[in-house]
Amino acid sequence: MIPDPIDTLLEYLRFPTVSTQVGHSDDLEDCAHWLKNLFEKIGLSAAVYPTAGHPIVVARRAPDPQKKTLLIYGHYDVQPAEPLEQWNSPPFEPLLNEREGKIYARGSADNKAPTLAHLLGIASTLEEEGELPLNVIFLLEGEEEIGSPHLETFLREHRHELSADIIVVSDTGMAPGNLPAMTYAMRGVAAMEFLVRGPSSDLHSGLFGGAVANPLSAAARLIASLHDGEGRILVPGFIEDLQPLDPWERELLAAVEKISSTGENALQRLAGVRELVGEAGFSTFERLGARPTIEVNGFGGGYQGEGTKTIIPREAFVKLSFRLVAPQSPQRALQQVEAHLRAHLPRGVSLEIKPGHCGDPYWMDPHSFYGKAAQQALEESFGVAPLLLREGASIPIVASFKKILHLDTLLLGLANPDCGMHSPNENILLKNFFAGIELNKHLLKKLAL
Amino acid sequence: MIPDPIDTLLEYLRFPTVSTQVGHSDDLEDCAHWLKNLFEKIGLSAAVYPTAGHPIVVARRAPDPQKKTLLIYGHYDVQPAEPLEQWNSPPFEPLLNEREGKIYARGSADNKAPTLAHLLGIASTLEEEGELPLNVIFLLEGEEEIGSPHLETFLREHRHELSADIIVVSDTGMAPGNLPAMTYAMRGVAAMEFLVRGPSSDLHSGLFGGAVANPLSAAARLIASLHDGEGRILVPGFIEDLQPLDPWERELLAAVEKISSTGENALQRLAGVRELVGEAGFSTFERLGARPTIEVNGFGGGYQGEGTKTIIPREAFVKLSFRLVAPQSPQRALQQVEAHLRAHLPRGVSLEIKPGHCGDPYWMDPHSFYGKAAQQALEESFGVAPLLLREGASIPIVASFKKILHLDTLLLGLANPDCGMHSPNENILLKNFFAGIELNKHLLKKLAL
Questions:
Q1: Does one domain contain both A180 and A205?
Q2: How far apart are CA A403 and CA A408, in angstroms?
Q3: pLDDT tens profile A246-293
Q4: Residue A261 and which of A435, B3, B128, B230 are 20 to 30 A apart at CA?
Q5: pLDDT > 90: percent of chain A
Q6: Closest CA–CA distance from residue A351 to any residue of chain B (Å)
Q7: How high is the pLDDT of residue A196?
């Protein structure tokens, strides 16, 4: 029996599953059990696993242990709806706007409609074919919006039950222009803070200026030493393992850049800058997806108030983070930057370095069997060849899947570019939702081959 | 009639003339009138001039309009005494410690004993010689410790009455080792703040990092562009008017540096640094007194809290100030740095510059007639040849005298190096006070020649 897509989606969206707000714990629990029932109704076995936080729902149908296994990940928790006054309709009373072909509700794009498209694609296949062409495991968590604090532990403890051949996640967006896309790479991340210390207290810049090193100047020189004037990273070893981009990748990125350089959602407009600039020798989308960065996220020291205070301050802090591209290692990047900073430290100041969090970069070959299968499924569902995207940001769970389950992830986003994810008036285009159901039917067949 | 030096000093010190505390206004008024009476008692005419703040006392004795005129500047106001619990005796109940040969009280060194030494030197000369060898004008203000807000106006309005040939001020310190000294140069000052602006709001460093200029990196590059790796200022024109130091000046500064490099008050110890560093090619005291600086006083932007926030921040601010050496002009220095910053601005960000306050550098030729006269008076009073000092900090009133009255100032400090000026347990060495009285007697004679 196939549940009605719209009715089921509206029901799903009425659970106010805000994972970060303690008052909604029961709503998350209720939603997990609602999902379990829904899975059972369409013919999957399902269980709700308690965690130290919100529960994880696992569902499966394994017609043949000899067949391939697909693991589908999603999340049923949502971002807070605040600021409520900016919503045109109540965030947990979903509104179907037929003229726009959209449903408005918190969680509609992120991640309930895409999750439900997976489920309904499977239900439809079971209805039409009587059985699935491969084994399927669903893994739906309730803590994605708070950083998945219990997912890695769950993956480690259940890694045998979650054993699979490939993972699919629909928690990214469509390409600019609402074009279908597969994301095949994401940048990793590493963070550090460093302190530059000088005199034991702030000094009078008249009485001491000229004879004592200034920690703010020293910190600025360290930052300036990280790049050349053309935006190239100068940290020894940092970029040395990176492979030159293949011609096909440069062509792909040029195609995405062309689409993203005009109109309301043009990158320059979204960024709010007069000019896009970056590393010499690379296009904007190569810089965003295929090149690492070292960014200064925060810098402070000395007098912060109105007007002037003529001091040589005692210390400065700098917060750095790097975006990394496979095969870079966050730990190695931290070591390389630390060595560079120590080698370039001006005289008369001392340096303290505090490493921060790390996340591995991710890359899968889009021309692999599974990559090509996913692209074929996308083309058959949407009627146009999908774009291939490199994501500049980091999705830590995908790196966790790689690290713990040793599996690649197909990232097939359904969210429309104007979906308002994490913002008021979040919405999903219904044609994306229905195409997503079709996509999942095609995907099962293509992946099973 | 010569007043008793110690009794008069103790009486003077009992006025709690804290100019920044409204509750002491009457004490300042009382003290001004007490000074007027004292001047009249020793044979000078005197008047108390009200200002919009605390009064100014002017006293004069002009035996011969054809003779030279000496203008003596001092202040009768004092710093707040707080923190009171750190005083070993009440700050306005002066304590004579005979074993140490010191009087402890707020204002003892800064500036009541030195002011009184001027007055008593003149009283003594009148007693011994019957008349002064030159005309004398005293100008004592009550707002020095709050930045002399009404002094420039007073100087302009009374510039004809204050017409003189030379000014003497005893509001600096003795040289290290309590050696007599004349300060013949002070650095000027200029301040500016600049803002570097990038995206219209903070951006996600994953989604935009690599394609957008980072204002913190850009600001750091601007700061780094101001100096080479050896501490030399790279701003075009900034140092081009500076004359090379004469061999006699380098010798003088080397002598002061030798005295200041060891012991409890050694510069490195006072600064609380492991190493003194500065512009290549100059000694520490040349850097402090005879070379300009560009210091970063404050720098801020981006995330300032605990941990990490992976953003490209929208803007950065930098607070700069320069110490300037004659013949540098603060206004020209501001223009030169602005031009340099604009020329070095990285792509993709904009720059806003806010000029701040300015103060001219000061220099007088210590080998001029008045300079040599003051040195001879110092040597005759203290029994050793005085040191010649360049002061790294700025004393704005001296630049005001030069600007408005067009007069040089002889800076002849009496404060002992351990006097605790502006700190608890401020004190004056009595031998400095008495030598100061002698100094003033000798000075009148030498200057009158």
A1: no
A2: 10
A3: 999 999 899 989 988 887 768 898 889 999 999 999 999 999 999 999
A4: A435
A5: 86
A6: 13
A7: 98
Q: Which residues of A touch B303 (CB under 8 A)?
A: 297-298, 319
Q: Do residues A183 and A432 lie in contact, with contact meaning Cβ atoms separated by under 8 Å?
A: no
How many structural domains are present in chain B? 2
CA–CA distances in Å: residue A232 to residues A220, A224, A348, B271: 17, 11, 28, 38
Is residue A265 one of the residues assigned to a domain? no
Band (pLDDT 50/70/90 cuts) for residue B333 is: very high
Sorting pLDDT into bands at 50, 70 and 90, what band is B259?
Answer: confident
Q: Are residues A205 and A127 in the same domain?
A: no
Please indicate whether, in this complex, the C-beta atoms of A210 and B304 are within 8 angstroms of each other: no
CATH number at residue B307: 3.30.70.360
Instruction: Answer for the pair B124, B441: CB distance below 8 angstroms, yes or no.
Output: yes
In a domain, B56, yes or no: yes
HEC sequence for B121-144:
HHHHHHHHHCCCCCEEEEEEECCH
Question: Does residue B204 or residue B322 have the better pLDDT?
Answer: B322
Q: Please indicate, yes or no, if residue B128 is contained in any of the structural domains.
A: yes
- CB-CB neighbors (< 8 A) of A195 in chain B: none
Q: Is the pTM of this model over 0.90?
A: no
Whether A271 sits inside 8 A of B347 (CB atoms) is no
pLDDT greater than 80 at residue A1? no
The answer on B128 and B17 residing in a single domain is yes
Nearest-CA distance from B354 to chain A in Å?
Answer: 10
User: Residue A177: which domain range?
Assistant: 5-186+361-448
Beta carbons of A304 and B300 less than 8 Å apart: yes
Find, in chain B, the residue whose alpha carbon is nearest to that of A283.
Answer: B211
Do A62 and A207 share a domain, yes or no?
no
Least CB-CB distance to B204: which of A210, A278, A393? Answer: A393
Compute the average pLDDT of residues B286-306: 95
From chain B, pick out residues whose CB is under 8 angstroms from the CB of A324: none
- Yes or no, beta carbons of B278 and A220 under 8 Å apart: no
Pick from A352, A291, A322: which is nearest to B217 by CA? A322
Same domain, B33 and B170: yes
Q: What is the pLDDT of residues B392-417, one digit of tens each?
A: 988 889 989 999 999 999 999 999 98
* Domain endpoint, select from A359, A388, A407: A359
Whole-angstrom distance, CA of residue A315 vs CA of residue A196: 5
Q: Are residues A234 and A349 in the same domain?
A: yes
pLDDT in tens, B170-218: 998 898 889 999 999 999 999 999 999 999 989 989 989 999 999 999 9
| Pairs of CB atoms within 8 A across A/B | 264
Tell me what ipTM this predicted complex has. Answer: 0.88
**In b/e form, how buried is each residue of B18-31, taking b as 16+ CB within 10 angstroms?**
bbeeeebbebbbeb
Q: Which positions ≥6 away from B371 have C-beta within 8 Å?
A: B182, B184, B364, B365, B410
Please indicate, yes or no, whether residues B93 and B224 belong to a single structural domain of this protein.
no
Q: How many CB atoms lie within 10 A of CB A57?
A: 24
The distance of B285 to chain A (nearest Cα, Å) reads 8
* Boundary (domain end) residue, out of B342, B359, B376: B359
Residue A308: list chain B partners with CB under 8 A. Answer: 191, 193, 297, 319, 321, 356-357
